[in-house]
Predict the structure of Rab GDP dissociation inhibitor.
Amino acid sequence: MDEHYDVIILGTGLTECVLSGLLSVEGKKVLHMDRNDYYGAESASLNLTQLYKKFRGTEPPAELGRDRDYAVDLIPKFMMANGEMTKMLVHTDVTRYLEFKQIAGSYVLRDNRIAKVPSTEMEAIKSPLLGLFEKRRARNFFLWVQGYKEDEPNTHQGLNLDKNTMKEVYYKFGLEAGTQDFIGHAMALYLDDDYLNQPARETYNRIILYTSSMARYGKSPYLYPLYGLGELPQGFARLSAIYGGTYMLDKPVEKIEYDDKGKFVGVTSGGETVKADKVIGDPSYFVDPSGKGGADKEDKVFLEGHVVRAICILRHPIPNTDDSDSVQIILPQKQVNRKHDIYIAEVSSTHNVCAKDVYIAIVSTVVETGNPEAELEPGLKLLGPIYDKFISIAPIYSPASSGSYDNVFVTRSYDATSHFETMCDDVKDVWRRAMGSELELKKRDEENLDAK
C-alpha cells in the first residue's frame, strides 16, 4: 500500500460516514476502513437473525416472520425535518438514495401521563398537559416566540435573547415547572437543565427549529428513513465512493502508527501500513490497548459515562398514543426523579423495519446507578406487554484532546438522545478540529426531501 491519503477514517458509524462523504465532496483523498464486514458500526440496523445472534446467540422465533422484513436499529435516532441532519443530506444530495417517512407523533410525560407535545398556541390551548390558566400563559409564550422579530423591539416584550436567561423568560410568562420541562426537554431537546441559566437565544432558536419542523409536514417534527437508520451510513458511503473515496470493510486495524514526535503517520492492517496526513475514527479504535483494533496509547479518549438501551419487540402500538405507528416519547428528568431524560423511539412495519403487526420500541437513558436496566423502568412500563427485550450498555467516550498536535481526530460515542442534533454537533466539531474551518452547508432546494 504505497498510496498516500489525505485522511484515513476508521469505523463506518454514521458520524464517520457523514464526514467521509463531506470530505470526499471537498476533494480530499479518503480511505475508509472498518473492522466489521457491514456498514454502520454502532449505528447499524440488524436483521432478525443478526439481532438474536448478537444478544442471545440463538435463532429468532419463527412466529416473528421473515429475516428480510427486519432492520432493527442498535441506536435509535430520528431526524428533525428542518434539522442539521436533513441539511447534511440535502447538501450532499444523499437524499437521492433514501426515502423518508414521517414519525406520527411527538409525546412527553408529565405527572405520570403522556400527551402530545404542543408546539403552537392552538395546540397549547387544547393540550391535556396544561391546566386552564396555564394554557393561557403557554399560549402567550408561543405567540411571543412566533412573533419575535429582531428588528422590531415592540415584539420583544422587554426581553433580550442575548441578556435574559431562559429562567427569566419562563418567569416573565409565569410558566409552571412542568411546562418548562416539556419546552426545554421535548421541544428544545436539552439533555439537562443547565440551559435555564444561559442566555435565551439558543433555546429560542431550538424552539423555532422544532416548530418549523413541525409545520413542514404536520403531525410531528421528525423523519425516519425507510429500511432503518443503517441506510444513512450506506448513503454517505456511496457518496464518498462517487467522489473517489476508497472503502475497506472487514479490515482489522492492527496498529495506529506514530512518528517519534507522537504525530499520526498511518494505519497498519494485514501487515501492511497505509500512510495519511490525518486520521478520524470512532472511539473504539483508540481505547483498546490489547491490539485488538485499538491504538497503543489510551490518552486519546476519556470515558464520560454509559448509556443503557432496551430494544423491545411489541405486538401492538404503544398505549395512549392514538394507535400511532411511530412515536417519540421524552420523559423529562424531573418527571421521573432522575438527572437525565429517558427517551422512547418507536417504529413499525410502515417504515419497512419489521413484519406487519410488529412494533420496535427502543428505550434509552444515561446510566446513573449500579442497576442500569431498572433505570429504564419508567419508560418500559409505558410500552404495555413486551414480546421480547434486548438490553445493551455502551460506554460514552469523548475525545481527550482537539487532535491538533497529533492529527488524531476522535468522534464522540452516540448518546442516549433519540434525535440527531447532538451527532450533527459532533460532525461539525470534528470538521472544525480536522479542517481548521467551519463546516458550511450550502442552501439547496430542500424540496427533494420527500417524506411520505
